[in-house]
Amino acid sequence: MIIFGFRGKVFQLAMVTFVCGNCSNQAAQALRKVVTKFTLFFIPLFPVSTKYLTQCTFCGVENRLTKDQADQVLAMGALQQAPREN
Ligand SMILES: [Zn+2]
């Protein structure tokens, strides 16, 4: 008997502040990556899908992103967190 399945793992990549498309508030958005892996006998073997999404901390809405969009959000977050030099 072979036991197989799928297991999802969520990685929080960054918190980025921008205006939410749903509630129109300037709010922190959590950028997350969801990796689904194929498992055999409960051992994760290889990823079958990778999804990116943001979740608004104000209204809770989730938006699916492409990899490119996720990279842009990450870059924006890096800028926001960079120390300001005067
Ligand atoms: Zn929102």
Written account of the structure:
By secondary structure, the protein is an alpha+beta fold. The protein has one domain. Helix content is 17%, strand content 57%. It is built from one helix and four strands. It has a four-stranded antiparallel beta sheet, covered by helices on one side. Strand 1 and strand 2 form a beta hairpin. The N and C termini lie far apart (65 Å). The model has no long low-confidence stretch (mean pLDDT 93).
Descriptive tags:
86 residues, alpha+beta, four-stranded antiparallel beta sheet, 1 helix, 4 strands, 57% strand, elongated, binds zinc ion
Q: What's the domain count?
A: 1
How many strand units?
A: 4
Small molecules in complex: zinc ion
Please tell me what the overall shape is: elongated
CA distance, first residue to last residue = 65 Å
As a percent range, the share of strand residues is over 45%
Number of contiguous helices: 1
Percent of residues in helices: 10-25%
What's a quick, concise take on this entry?
The chain has 86 residues and is α+β, with helices and mostly antiparallel strands. It has one helix at 67-81; strands spanning 4-19, 26-40, 43-56, 62-65.
Helix and strand arrangement:
Blueprint: E1 4-19, E2 26-40, E3 43-56, E4 62-65, H1 67-81
Antiparallel strand pairs: 1-2, 2-3, 3-4
The structure holds zinc ion (ZN).
